[in-house]
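Input sequence (146 aa), recorded before submission:
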Amino acid sequence: MPRIDISKYRYQAISNVLGQMEMMYGQVLVSTNADNVQFFKQEFDLKLEKTVWKEYHKLAGIKARVCFTPGNIRVQCVMDDLIQFYHVDPETLAVTLENTMSNYMRCNYMYYGPKVRYCITYQNGSRKIQIYRRKVFHNFKVSVSE
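Predicted structure, token format:
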């Protein structure tokens, strides 16, 4: 096994508490902790004269597991009762809530393929995964306001 030169890597403490993490587009780090979902991106720090990870968006009060599949443009925040789909723009890295659905499957993790044709769900403690295939393509969405 070849040796890895660790001098090419550097350590940075981004936050006090980071939980599950997903990397999007090689530029955005999405992390969860006890009650937040945080989005980080790298920015050049003039004082330190190097790039550092900075939090640029936070979903406060959301206890969720983050699911992302490379090739997709959405990140799923899976909660006990809801699943929220957030669109992260590849150019601006802006985060917008796109859709919310009920977690009727009671899953803990949900992964979509890049063409959003197949979905895999998993529930902690279960011995199997569920695979769903989209049967109908529609654009039916209902706007819900508080």
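Checked by second reader. Residues 12-105 form one domain.
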